[in-house]
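Below is a filled-in request sheet from our internal design queue. Each sheet records the structural input a requester submitted and the sequence that came back. We keep these sheets so that new team members can see what a complete request looks like end to end.

REQUESTER: design group, bay 2
PRIORITY: normal
MODE: inverse folding
CHAIN LENGTH: 183
BACKBONE (tokenized):
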């Protein structure tokens, strides 16, 4: 297994200061709408999942998946304080399986794909969960993931059936927007 960020280290990048650099509502604008079902893969402590729950509204749902139960515990506490816990379903992933079923209208993998030992398997799982026309946003930290490594992940995504689109500009990150190829 590749290195997985320990739960306690997540506080270094999941904090109020990050909202200034990566405001979730701005980064995800146009990708989510009220009533949608969204998937946050590697959700950590809920930086994006909680914002996504606000964006999908009371009629929507967010499936927050992480390998570490401590991350999910923290997310549930934060979501309860934010008043959106009823919109979030948490799921502890297995080492090779997300453990969720679709379909979903949007998926996000923020700063986590580089931690996955079998990226092809993960990309295939997310691809299978997406509704036609749905989007999958992948971001990776520039300081940790080289351009060459990110390009290899993009190529792998194309290989498993994703159409590659330019992603939003995400500070200190490499980003790509993926959609299931039609036909």
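RETURNED SEQUENCE:
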């Amino acid at each position: 297994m590749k290195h997985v960020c320990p739960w306690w280290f997540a506080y270094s990048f999941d904090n109020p200061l990050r909202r200034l650099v990566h405001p979730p509502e701005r980064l995800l604008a146009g990708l989510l709408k009220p009533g949608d079902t969204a998937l946050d893969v590697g959700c950590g402590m809920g930086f994006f999942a909680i914002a996504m729950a606000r964006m999908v509204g009371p009629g929507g749902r967010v499936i927050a998946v992480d390998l570490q139960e401590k991350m999910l515990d923290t997310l549930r506490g934060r979501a309860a304080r934010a008043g959106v816990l009823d919109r979030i379903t948490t799921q502890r992933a297995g080492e090779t399986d997300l453990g969720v079923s679709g379909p979903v209208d949007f998926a996000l993998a923020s700063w986590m794909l580089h931690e996955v030992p079998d990226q092809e398997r993960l990309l295939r799982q997310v691809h299978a969960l997406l509704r036609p026309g749905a989007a999958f946003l992948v971001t990776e930290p520039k300081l940790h993931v080289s351009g060459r490594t990110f390009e290899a992940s993009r190529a792998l995504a194309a290989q498993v059936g994703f159409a590659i689109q330019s992603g939003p500009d995400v500070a200190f990150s490499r980003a790509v927007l993926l959609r299931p190829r039609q036909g």
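SHEET NOTES:
- The longest strand covers residues 130-141.
- The chain has one domain: 31-180.
FILED BY: M.R.
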